[in-house]
Amino acid sequence: MSQLIQEFKSEHLQISDLLLQAREVGVGNQQGRDLILSAKKMLLAHLNKEDKYLYPVLREAAENDESLKSTLTDYALDMDKISVDVMSFFTLYESGDNTVEHFQQDCNNIIKALSKRITKEEAVLYKTYEKIKSA
Fold first, then answer.
1. Which of 54, 84, 107, 114 is the most exposed place for a label (fewest CB within 10 A)?
2. pLDDT at 39
3. For residue range 51-69, what is the model confidence (pLDDT) as tens digits?
4. What SS3 state is found at 94?
5. Distances (CA, A) of 9 to 66, 67, 94, 102, 125
């Protein structure tokens, strides 16, 4: 496995762990808000890194592979929806100005959505990247 994919997988674990910790601590205190902010920063950095190093390789390969092109389109649409939900979650809870009443459920929903996306990325996109780079 390439160093890049190892880094991506490690970042996935770190982001998930930060959100799990935030769920446990709650958002009604500074520690919980700090965990939310850390998760947001790490996720944004991770997405930027994928945009810089992963997707250009996949898009180039997709120029000659209709199946991969279709897969990338599907993943992009999926990520657009997840991004809206995740950023709304961060905006709602990182300041501490909002109610903590629904935080546990909202956090669970974000963790589930990200977990599903991570699983799909690692199973399909990362494996495809590895095949392209080893060819």
1. 84
2. 96
3. 999 999 999 999 999 999 9
4. coil
5. 27, 24, 25, 29, 12
Intra-chain end-to-end CA distance of the chain, in Å? 13
Which pair of structure tokens corresponds to residue 104?
Answer: 């546990």
Q: What is the pLDDT averaged over residues 86-112?
A: 86
For 112, what's the count of Cα atoms within 13 Å in the CB-facing half-sphere? 6
Query: Degrees (nearest 5) of the Cα angle 29, 35, 41?
Result: 135
Among 16-20, 30-34, 38-42, the range scoring the smallest mean pLDDT is: 30-34
Predicted TM-score of the model (pTM) = 0.91
For the chain, where are the E strands, in sequence order? none
Are 100 and 50 within 8 A, CB to CB? no
